[in-house]
Hints:
The chain is built from nine helices and five strands. It is α/β, with parallel strands linked by helices.
Amino acid sequence: MFDQTHNSKVKNEKIMRWRLDLACYKFDVIYRPGKDNASADALSRISAVVHSETSLSDLHSMLCHLGVTRMYHWGPLPSASRNRYLLTIVDAEFSRFPFAIPCPDISATTVISCLQSIFSLFGLPDYIHSDRGASFMSADLKIFLNSQGIASSRTTAYNPQGNGQVERYNGIIWKTIQLALKTKQMQIERWEERLPTALHSIRSLLCTATNVTPHERLFSHSRMSSNGRSLPDWLTKPGPVLMRNPVRENKYQLR
Length: 255
């Protein structure tokens, strides 16, 4: 680095300044361990006790998103009814449990009505985060949330990543609706009829990272399927049957 023959390939500006300052001297560079170089940065070597008993859960409660609910208005969608918009709400703190409510418009009055129906069933959240839609920025919604003791925030302008969780759920919900419509060979305008089936599938989807579904995380019990089970033809016929079972009936069953 300080080769006096100037053959060094180091081009750092700070080192180059040192080389210029030391060029008129003859010297040897000798390594000195940090413990012997106490005067270099004394402040960083003060043996003070910097230890905190605060646990990670306490930090999460104080600094992170406690009881956060995210919401987003999506539409207009082709519809056979007057409901051409979809209000998507996600419990972002713990369960990732989604709600999707068909709406005729995106007014603040409609949003307040939808929130009241959810609050009556599940209680009040601590915090609501949304994008900068006109209905979410309205004074009526702010007054309603303040009256319920609910804090709120909005994303920055032109930054959909700030509400990325519910943005992602919009795509998941719509793709699931399309699959449900295709299964029944129904037109896209009848999406509202297949919305409950799509939500049931998403809420029952097992997360392999946590080994629980959104329904189990929210309600602490497994979700009963509305589709039931049917016996395959090979089971009603006599004779041995050898087959591999790649699908588990429940998450606790070993393959």
